[in-house]
Design the sequence.
């Protein structure tokens, strides 16, 4: 085994700060305040603390113990560690999730992290100063993301900041554990906490809103923390709290396993794990809960604050907070007026950048450790290979951000794999490794004793809790999510097109009213499809019918539905000529006049179906009524489906590559995999 594989943390403080750096990320300062405020305020902390005690802290101890134990046999990643817990040839393949998940998260996390670096510069130099309300600031963010060109022309600026962020991650990875990750966290974490304290103090000392004295920080803290106990009756609140614990502690990802594998056999994992979890909770609950929601309450009021709390974390961090800092009172220092909004805005995004980079480098370490320690590749070559592969995989997230690629990656890497991996490792640790052996291993070198109650929590409560979450997901949303797309939906759309073109003579003279409103690509696709059908009509006394279904290309399908989505997003939809020809139902017209920022993906799909049903009327007899009913109940295929399919194919190729790498490691390093004694003394 190469000498470099024996790399260790230089101090106990280093490993605690590194694990805290992995856990303290964007979710602490963006996701937690929004979830707490939107789910009962102070009442949210009840299921939050229950989840922390029943599976957050136990999972921390499980991963610290498993990591140190596997590291004693020379394994730095989950496949080898799982093989140590249960000597079965197949179990190592489940450990691949602990490498696959972090890579997937790293692919999109670094891009989001680069936004924080870009916005730190924008804040410092007042680039978004002209955006004075939520809509304008959201337009600025969307322009930066390449979704429109109101402020930026293309992705050049966003890509430049992405390259800078990616190179910063590469530099840390090249330096390794001690000189790279540990060095970064020793500097970044104290600076992060210092900035958070400064921002919290600034928020807490803000004067009341002059226009409405009731909008003050004290009432804002009340909005955040006063309990609404009726929310506890909602099971979604409990699931949200459990999900937040997963995100905030970085458990179930595989990072802590790798970090703990660099411990020596006599290092304490009980106290270190508890200290790392406590550091993260301090950042999230005390600091994260003090900055955003109270400040937003003061400047925007309770009504708008409720909408802000339910908005996405991206809107909170990159739309609401810049507006808040822009409105901070000017600071008079030695007779000079300082634009404090620029300064505090830059500090806010620097805080997010530090939280992001300490997390992203931790996401890279399992894959680098796998290449180096299992395949015997040198540290430099392992880092280069990881950098090249992930840089290529990052491109779809940047280039196709508006087509659901990031959301797809976040689901598989940051949600599904996370819960599945945590469930597997908990069952392995408590049942196959054995709770007696696990309890002894956990306390080897420990300075404190874990309460005996946790023997039963680790063996029974935590795995049952996780299995219930997995079962609920599979029963409620599993099949439609796992299915790559509903191709049969296009039968409904084609039937509507057939009936529409056959039953309306006006179509052949002037063109369909709806097509007049669609973008050029969608118009061309509709006309091409319709002409294919028109050429096959058999007009008989019984009415028009199709002789044969012509094929429809994927490009045409995507263009048609993307066009309908763009149509619904037009701000002047009701002012379009001949709009009354569409004859939308009253429920649809009322819904179209609501705030479109609140529309979900399901709302868009429902509107697509409603508009298609109205614009493409079907005239079937009683015998076909059931067919019509079935067609209308089926979702219209997602216009972003080709991008989602491409993302899933990319992930499948990545998983197969890891599978092959594990097979090579199994045959190449059998001396490590088959060891019956650890490299260091046993307890």
Sequence:
């Amino acid at each position: 085994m190469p000498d470099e594989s024996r790399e260790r943390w230089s101090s106990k403080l280093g490993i605690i700060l590194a694990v805290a750096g992995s856990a303290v990320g964007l979710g602490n300062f963006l996701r937690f305040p929004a979830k707490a405020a939107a789910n009962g305020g102070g009442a949210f902390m009840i299921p939050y603390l229950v989840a922390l005690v029943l599976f957050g802290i136990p999972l921390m101890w499980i991963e610290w113990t498993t990591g140190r134990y596997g590291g004693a046999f020379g394994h730095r990643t989950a496949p080898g560690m799982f093989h140590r817990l249960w000597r079965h040839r197949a179990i190592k393949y489940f450990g691949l999730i602990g490498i696959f998940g972090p890579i997937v998260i790293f692919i999109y996390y670094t891009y989001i992290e680069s936004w924080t670096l870009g916005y730190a510069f924008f804040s410092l130099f007042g680039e978004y100063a002209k955006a004075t309300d939520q809509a304008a600031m959201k337009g600025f963010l969307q322009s930066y993301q390449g979704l429109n060109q109101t402020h930026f022309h293309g992705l050049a600026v966003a890509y430049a900041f992405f390259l800078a962020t990616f190179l910063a991650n590469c530099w840390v990875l090249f330096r390794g554990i001690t000189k790279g990750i540990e060095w970064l966290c020793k500097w970044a974490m104290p600076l992060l906490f210092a900035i958070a304290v400064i921002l919290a103090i600034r928020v807490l000392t803000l004067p009341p809103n002059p226009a409405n004295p009731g909008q003050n920080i004290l009432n804002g803290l009340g909005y955040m923390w006063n309990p609404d106990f009726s929310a506890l009756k909602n099971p979604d609140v409990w699931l949200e709290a459990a999900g937040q614990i997963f995100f905030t502690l970085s458990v179930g990802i595989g990072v802590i396993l790798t970090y703990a594998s660099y411990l020596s056999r006599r290092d304490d994992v009980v106290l270190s794990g508890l200290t790392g979890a406590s550091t993260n909770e301090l950042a999230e609950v005390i600091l994260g809960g003090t900055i955003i929601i109270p400040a937003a309450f003061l400047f925007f009021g309770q009504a708008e604050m409720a909408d802000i709390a339910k908005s996405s974390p991206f809107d909170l961090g990159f739309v609401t907070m810049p507006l808040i800092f822009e409105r901070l009172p000017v600071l008079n220092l030695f007779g000079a007026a300082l634009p404090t909004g620029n300064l505090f805005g830059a500090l806010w995004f620097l805080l997010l950048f530090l939280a992001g980079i300490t997390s992203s480098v931790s996401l890279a370490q399992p894959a680098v450790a796998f290449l180096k320690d299992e395949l015997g590749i040198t540290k430099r070559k392992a880092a280069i290979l990881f950098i090249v592969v992930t840089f290529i995989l990052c491109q779809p997230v940047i280039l196709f951000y508006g087509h659901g690629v990031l959301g797809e990656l976040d689901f598989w890497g940051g949600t599904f794999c996370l819960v599945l991996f945590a469930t597997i490792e908990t069952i392995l640790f408590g049942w196959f490794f054995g709770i007696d052996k696990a309890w002894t291993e956990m306390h080897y070198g420990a300075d404190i004793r874990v309460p005996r109650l946790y023997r039963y929590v680790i063996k029974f409560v935590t795995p049952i809790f996780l299995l219930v979450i997995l079962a609920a997901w599979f029963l409620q949303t599993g099949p439609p999510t796992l299915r790559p797309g509903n191709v049969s939906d296009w039968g409904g759309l084609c039937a509507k097109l057939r009936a529409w073109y056959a039953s309306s003579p006006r179509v052949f003279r002037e063109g369909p009213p709806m097509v007049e409103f669609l973008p050029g690509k969608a118009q061309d696709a509709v006309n091409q499809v319709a002409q294919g059908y028109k050429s096959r009509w058999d007009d008989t006394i019984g009415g028009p019918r199709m002789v044969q279904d012509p094929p429809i290309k994927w490009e045409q399908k995507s263009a048609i539905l993307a066009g309908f989505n763009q149509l619904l997003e037009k701000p002047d939809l009701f002012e379009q000529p001949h709009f009354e020809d569409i004859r939308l139902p009253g429920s649809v017209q009322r819904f179209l006049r609501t705030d479109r920022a609140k529309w979900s993906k399901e709302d868009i799909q429902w509107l697509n179906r409603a508009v298609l049903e109205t614009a493409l009327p079907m005239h079937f007899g009683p015998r076909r009524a059931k067919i019509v009913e079935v067609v209308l109940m089926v979702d219209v295929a997602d216009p972003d489906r080709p991008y989602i399919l491409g993302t899933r194919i990319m992930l499948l190729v990545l998983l197969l590559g890891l599978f092959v790498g594990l097979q090579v490691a199994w045959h190449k390093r059998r001396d490590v995999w088959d060891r019956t004694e650890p490299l260091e003394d046993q307890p």
Remarks:
- The longest strand covers residues 331-333.
- The chain has a mean pLDDT of 79.
- DSSP finds 31 helices and two strands in the chain.
- The beta strands are 331-333, 336-338.
